[in-house]
Amino acid sequence: MKKRGKVIFKIRKHQIWEITKKILGVLLILLGLTGLALPILPGWIFLILGLGLISDKYLKILIKETKDKWKKFRQRFKNQRK
Question: How buried is residue 53: exposed, middle or buried, by Cβ count under 10 Å (0-12/13-18/19+)?
Answer without folding.
Answer: buried
